[in-house]
Each structure stands twice: as structure tokens, then as C-alpha cells.
Amino acid sequence: MGTPAFSIYSASKAAIRNLVRSWALDLKGTGIRVNVLSPGPTETPGLLRGLARTGNMDAAIADLTARTPLGRMSDPDDIAAVALFLASDDSAFMTGSETSVDGGIAQV
Domain total for the chain? Predict the structure, then answer.
């Protein structure tokens, strides 16, 4: 999704999605699967430090939470659970896919 003042960031995410699609074809028949996990706002120490530096951390968190259909930022464990799924045999029939773990923020 496009975001004002984040054109390079948005373009790099799109490039990663297409790289994964191409790698899935390049690696066809090797048994190697390639997928991309796209997280949404995740409550990590790095994000919280960055938001604190703006002087508007509470407002920024409130904005992210309000824009997320699930009404919260993710916990790193939310992202890890999907990463483990993608690394497991439970996702054996997935390749070239993007899995959004974003609470719906980029989906609706």
C-alpha cells in the first residue's frame, strides 16, 4: 500500500514480493519453498524507541491502533507464530506467497 513520504519503503516491499514470486519459479523442482511474511505495526523495543524520539509516541500508537482492524499492534510472538508456520511442513504446499500478519491494516 502506498504511504505518503514512504515511497522508497513502499517500493522496496513491492520488490520483495516480486522477488519471492520469481524465486519460487527459479527454485521449482528443488524442494525449496520461498514465501514472504509481511508484518504490520509490531510492538518492538526498536519501534517504541523510534516513536519515543518523536515526542508523540502515545498519539502514534493510538493512530496505529485505530487504523488496525483488530484494534491493536501485534506482539512479536504474533509474527513468530506465522514464521514458524511458514518454516514448518504445515505450509508444504505454499511457495511464492505473501502472508500478511498486520491485523488487517493493509487489507481493508
Answer: 1
